[in-house]
């Protein structure tokens, strides 16, 4: 996976999480799941760019 593609995935995931959290709450299970997915994407990006 290239860094550019990963950055797009990170931004889309972040956007989805923020929008859902605004409609529900930060403790909503779907928000937590998306946050976990975002963490994984950020870790991938960190390791790719190191």
TrEMBL record:
One of its GO terms (biological process) is regulation of sporulation. This is Aspartyl-phosphate phosphatase Spo0E family protein. InterPro entries: HLH_DNA-bd_sf, Spo0E-like, Spo0E-like_sf. GO terms for molecular function: protein dimerization activity. It holds the Pfam family SpoOE-like.
């Amino acid at each position: 996976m290239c860094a550019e593609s990963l950055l797009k995935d990170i931004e889309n995931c972040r956007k989805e999480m923020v929008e859902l959290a605004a409609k529900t709450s930060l403790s909503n299970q779907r928000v937590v799941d998306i946050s976990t997915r975002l963490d994984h994407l950020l870790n991938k990006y960190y390791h790719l760019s190191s």
